[in-house]
Design brief:
The structure holds four protein chains of four kinds. Chain A is mainly alpha-helical. Chain A has helices at residues 21-25, 30-58, 69-104, 113-135, 149-153, 158-185, 198-229, 243-260, 263-277, 284-297, 313-341, 350-373, 375-381, 385-415, 421-448, 462-492. Chain B has two domains: 1-42 and 66-211, Cupredoxins -  blue copper proteins (Immunoglobulin-like), CATH 2.60.40; 214-322, Cytochrome c-like domain (Cytochrome Bc1 Complex, Chain D, domain 2). Chain B has helices at 14-47, 63-92, 198-206, 214-224, 262-270, 293-305, 314-322, and strands spanning 99-106, 109-114, 119-121, 123-127, 131-138, 143-147, 152-156, 162-167, 172-178, 191-196, 249-251, 257-259. In chain B, the strands form three sheets. Chain B has a five-stranded mixed β-sheet with strand order 3-2-1-5-8, with helices on one face. A five-stranded mixed β-sheet of chain B has the order 4-10-9-6-7. In chain B, helix 1 (14-47) runs antiparallel to helix 2 (63-92), helix 4 (214-224) crosses helix 6 (293-305) and helix 5 (262-270) packs across helix 6 (293-305). Chain B is elongated. By secondary structure, chain D is mainly alpha-helical. Chain D has a single domain, classed as Four Helix Bundle (Hemerythrin (Met), subunit A) (Up-down Bundle). Chain D has six helices and no strands. In chain D, helix 3 (71-96) packs antiparallel against helix 6 and helix 4 packs antiparallel against helix 5. The chains are: A mainly alpha, B alpha+beta, C mainly alpha, D mainly alpha. The B-D interface holds B 254, 271, 273-274, 282, 288 and D 58-61, 144-145, 147-148.
Chain lengths: 543, 332, 95, 225
Amino acid sequence: MTTSAVPIRERENYLNKEYGIKSWLLTTDHKRIALLYLMSITFFFFIGGFFALLIRLELLTPAGDLVQADTYNKLFTMHGQVMVFFFLIPAVPAVLGNFLIPIMIGAKDLAFPRINLLSWYIFILGSALMLYTILTGGVDTGWTFYTPLSTEFLTTKVVAAAMAIFIVGFSSILTGLNFIVTIHRMRAPGLTWSRLPLFVWANYATSIIFVLGTPVLAISLALVGLERVFHLGIFNPKLGGDPLLFQHLFWFYSHPAVYVMILPGMGVVSEIVACFSRKRLFGYKFMALAVIAIAVLGFLVWAHHMFVAGISLYAALVFSLFSYMVAVPSAIKVFNWTATLYKGSISYTTPMLYAFGFIGLFTMGGMTGLFVAALGIDVHVTDTYFIIAHFHYIMVGGMVMAYLGGMHFWWPKISGRMYPEGWGKLAALIIFIGFNLTFFPQFILGYMGMPRRYWQYSPEFQVLNVLSTAGASILAVGYLLPMLYFLWSMRYGKLADDNPWGAAGLEWMTSSPPTTSNFDEIPTVTWEAYNYDQLKEVPVERQ
Amino acid sequence: MLEHVPFWPARASTTAGQVDALFVFLLILCGIVCLAIFTMIVVFAIRYRRRAGHEAEQIEGSNALEFTWTFIPGCIFLCIFVWGAYIYFQERTPPQGAAEVYTVAKQWMWKFQHAEGQREINELHVPVGRDVRMIMTSQDAIHSFYVPAFRIKQDVLPGRYTTAWFHATKAGTYHLFCAEYCGTMHSGMTGDIVVMEPAQYQAWLSGGGSTAPLAVTGEKLFSELGCSTCHHSDGQGRGPNLVGLFGKPVLLEDGRTMIADENYIRECIQNPTLRIPKGYKPIMPTFQGLVSDEQLNALVAYIKSLGQTQPKQAAGSSVAAVRPQLPTPQVH
Amino acid sequence: MSDHIATKKTYIVVWASLMCLTAATAGSSYLELGRFNIILALVIATCKAMLVALIFMGVKYISQKMTWVVIVAGLFWLFILLALSMTDYISRSWA
Amino acid sequence: MSDSSPALATHNRDLQHHFTTMEQQKDASVMGMWVFLVTEIMFFGGMFAGYMIYRYQYYDAWVEGSQHMDFWWGTINTAVLLCSSLTMALGVRASQLGRRRLTAMFLLITILFGLGFLGIKGIEYHGHWVDQQFPGTNFHFLGPNPRQVELFFSFYWAMTGFHALHVLIGICLVAYIAYHSWRGAYGPDYHNPVENVGLYWHFVDIVWIYLYPLLYLISHKHVSG
């Protein structure tokens, strides 16, 4: 809030303090590392998106005519692996979280800046291996690596892909470790737990999952690798090994990973909704409790991916029950966001449009979660397009919307420039429409019984597949737009104030962009989070 | 009524009706809740839009509301859970006396063996109005037996049996899909389930030429492989008497008790020394790799048929005639 | 800095007890206790692990309560992994 | 927490710029290490879960496999690791007291114990290899339930292999720390790296404390080596 007389361009900040490749590649500044991550994951987002487009084009007709069956299998496998492990999981934590958490808690940096940089290098190492996998023929295990298919029957680059994901797993672990310690030990004086922004809470919950879940994924993939390379027989049915053991270990992480892909998004949306309703979040304490509850309960539900896999009837009952328990805190969050709008002063900025989109799509995704958690229905719809639609509503409709919303919300802070608001709103609208057109038909396809991962399909499924492909092309345009105008705005965008939204939170009390050490003086916090009653509204026309 | 809804899948089993009922219930429930939430969001967004002279009113929250919207959804979720679990419980509990079809899945085809002896590939004929139980195993990767019109799905695993059952209600031809990704031609691993009226089904059964019932094939194998040298029906052999074994609990050497189900019999043929019944020596050689999955199915069908008092199917009766039933099984 | 520094003697006593416990666990495997063999072995192993964690790793002397929370969380999650996956295997044979 | 006043913090060359006090820095470092160890618990936990499930299913085969472990080498190796933990603890103590030469010496002995452990493990591995007890086409086992015994050996190699890898990493870390300790990088005020490597080393020791009875001591009927 201290708009000094010096023009922003000339104020020293983290972007103009040093120049040159070296100053970026050897930086320990969490903000610069966030930007390194931003570039890396954007790259993978478009690779994964390209695979998705090819998949949708192939599915335009029932016959397998655009690509070979093996190629198609590689496309959906690598789409899944790239999007999940190289985009969605790092998206909000490693980019926005990295950039914002230290600032939001009034610290100069994360607790372990060098480990933060190391985590990016580990990510790059894994990325290199993944690119090697893609360029040298790809992999067709499905992103789930189910044994014994992956260990015995495929001849593609399974080990390289597993290693790539094993390695990026350590990058998540280090990020999570860093966040946990930072949030515990680096908070500014006066910033108690009950004063933390929900974005910080959400990333804290995510970090718990990173730290406790990722190692189990790492070991299960490592065992797949050992089984392929050294013929160890951990999952080999010929030796009495149980393929379901792999699924148990895999989903022990990969189900909580779904919450990794949504919790930070919930954090982002909480910030945006509060800011553009100009209100303290409704039920702050319950919101904070809910994210922790989701992270903890999320570990008790993994076998709901395996209801038809041959697990015991009784285990299925237990896991289904827990799945409904984890739905409760998710419902609480939706109700609280809605209640926050009540008697607010709501402005329809681009981030807010994304937040609306998030709440809508997440509600749909969550509601369909109730369908698939019901044992009887899950038997019918699991491994069909119903599941595809369900998790895309959560992960794309939810997380990507939140990620884009967050990028727009904090773009002035990150770049010091405003994005073009008109284009922003247009893109948000296109993405919302394109998304629904792509994925809503897939719910119907799934209930009709179209299995997932099908290269060719029965003709009665075609109409809905055509709709879905049409939606995907709209969605593609929607995703290209923000990238283009963000790039444009870095040079031509209007210069941003320190606090263009009149938002609460420590990150808006420092300059835009912040200096390398974030604050000239560590603030002492004497107020609650979202103290919008104490903040001046920014005049409507200036937004 | 649902038949007239566009894109609603065909319903051809007793399970399908149950699943649809819960599905429709959830559609209505979630539809209402979604509508309510979306309406509230839209109404709030318009009514409380930012404008001159309007300021946000700070509301801390409300414990009463929070508990309400924790408790009520919690209860509703519990009801859905119970309903879903009830359906699942039935799906996983095959009725007594079902016709049995042994299934071997492999990349990328379905092989079926009817108890009556008919064999089919990628096509399965079943009658209307009869419980049919699928006893399935895979020769390679994991596959999944999925018939959308029946609303059933069950993964088919290598190394053991998994089972599924259905009761077809409407004649017609329905899709069979492999629902678990299994390699290159996963999408080609499809087939037809042909549901026939009982009379036509009988005609189809008898039209297939002279095929021996599966249990009879198994019996032949039983003696060819030399099993009968040790497994005597009088209990005097070196191996346990197998008559009446099926479905009974077996006390093992290590003190545990197991039910002699299909998986137990299969395991004992493949890894004989792993689950030795109390009082027997680990002398039986393994047959893993020596008998194919189809032969294994025949052996299991034969051993199951031993000592069944009430023959439930054609195969059972013909075998029971050959093998007189003995009163007390030695293994219990 | 006010680290607690344990005495040399403490460490040596702990080490000696660890060696004794190792001998005990090795010896116990010669006893025929049925399924209590594994229980005894795990109890001894846990005692040893506790000694190492509390004294050698200094958990006993750490003033931060958070360390305890972290350790307990780790063990609790391990328990979740073991127990919940075991529920599947134990109950598979139930009729 | 960071509520101690920054004014009190005396400038220390070892205090990184983003921390306010040495105490905050140390707290963060200790907590970070413990969080990391929790990830290690879960990493090994995956294998322990598999071990437990198969042991439950194929107990006889597990007993059979365990009888082909080398009881004496296994027991000796347990003792070796425990000794290394002692010298590690004494090394950390020496660094707390600021005695850098003594620290380096204890760390060096720790390395020697670590190498000894790996050497003995190597002897065992060699024996199993020669006896065709490495899973795969080479595996050959005449006793009952050969396939499930092969499964046991898969776990043996995977679990001890990952453990040995951790010991190896530990040795490298201890060597690094020993070198810097000798050069005088640590003192009574700042020895977080020494403590953290110590924690890591003890953790690896604890893993072995469990691996030893689970793999070597399943049955009382030992074939002594």
